[in-house]
Amino acid sequence: MATLILNGKTAQVPVVREAVFACRDAGLALEVWVTWEAGDATRLAEWAGQAGVDRVVAGGGDGTVNEVANGLMRLPQGRRPALGILPLGSANDLATALGLPLEADEALRMALQEAARPIDVPRLDGRHFLNMATGGFGAEVTSSTPKSLKRLLGGGAYSLIGALKAWQYHPYPGVLRWADGDRQASLFVLAMGNGTRSGGGQRLTPQARIDDGLLDVLILRDFRSLHDMWRMRQELESRPAQGDFVETLRTPWLSFEGQRSLPLTLDGEPLKRQGFRVEVDPAALDLVVPADCPLLAG
Ligand SMILES: Nc1ncnc2c1ncn2[C@@H]1O[C@H](COP(=O)(O)OP(=O)(O)OP(=O)(O)O)[C@@H](O)[C@H]1O
Description:
Blueprint: E1 2-6, H1 14-25, E2 30-34, H2 40-50, E3 55-60, H3 62-73, E4 82-87, H4 93-98, H5 104-113, E5 116-124, E6 127-128, E7 132-136, H6 137-141, H7 148-154, H8 157-166, E8 172-178, E9 181-193, E10 197-198, E11 202-203, E12 215-221, H9 226-238, E13 246-251, E14 253-266, E15 269-288
Parallel strand pairs: 1-2, 1-3, 3-4
Antiparallel strand pairs: 5-6, 5-15, 7-9, 7-14, 8-9, 8-14, 9-12, 10-11, 12-13, 14-15
Helix pairs in contact: 1-5, 2-3, 7-8
The chain binds adenosine-5'-triphosphate.
Adenosine-5'-triphosphate is lined by residues 7-9, 35-38, 60-64, 89-92, 268.
Cofactor: Mg(2+); Ca(2+)
Family: Belongs to the diacylglycerol/lipid kinase family. YegS lipid kinase subfamily.
Binding site for Mg(2+): 209, 212, 214
């Protein structure tokens, strides 16, 4: 038996209803549970597992997928249903990177019929995420200027400078620790990827794989001038392990002790922490992915 946990704001969308009816007509057993507000998808996913459902499909955006995953992670691993995704958000960063179909009918069929593969589930303190956690500048302005970080990666440095000024940008100094080292860092941006893209298509951690037991970490250090920013952008092209402004590393865990509160996003949902620790639970959840999924390592 499978349950679709559907973000209530999409419950009356005709293509979604048609996709459900088409699957039922094809003989696939599917119940639909609809959310009303934040937190519902987590609770419903946990209940579905307790009721013995063996597959839960998250119907919504990255936020809904995150909530469902958190509900499933409350269950003991042996009783954790497999997770499928029906992408209905505005960004769908995880679904896109996984190579899932974005068309509702095809996506729902795949979520119900395709095999599930074990994936890692990172956890920031007590909160799980599937795709990416980011901290610093991008997280600070996500809600009002979602395209700002994209500009940094794609061009338009002058508009980024404008955005930085408008937001009275200050770096976030603190101590980073990870499995192979530690460093005092003045952060501009920190990205910790299980998946590769966040914020509506920014490929912050393009080498990340969802089943390698590791986080792919991108550290962008503070810069002082437009010239430094150009150098940062050049380094973002070549992705050195340790550049002047860009550093990349892989680790099963990472912690940050900041001098002030750092704005973060977990799968796009905002939160703030002065200090935190991120750890990977390897192969903790079975996720339905296409056979040729580009995010699988093995
Ligand atoms: N019935 C509902 N009506 C409106 N909002 C809802 C309802 N149920 C849940 N929500 C809200 O929707 C949020 C999740 O949104 P979701 O991620 O599915 O869509 P999105 O933000 O459009 O997607 P994306 O993250 O891909 O841009 C939840 O955190 C919750 O606050």
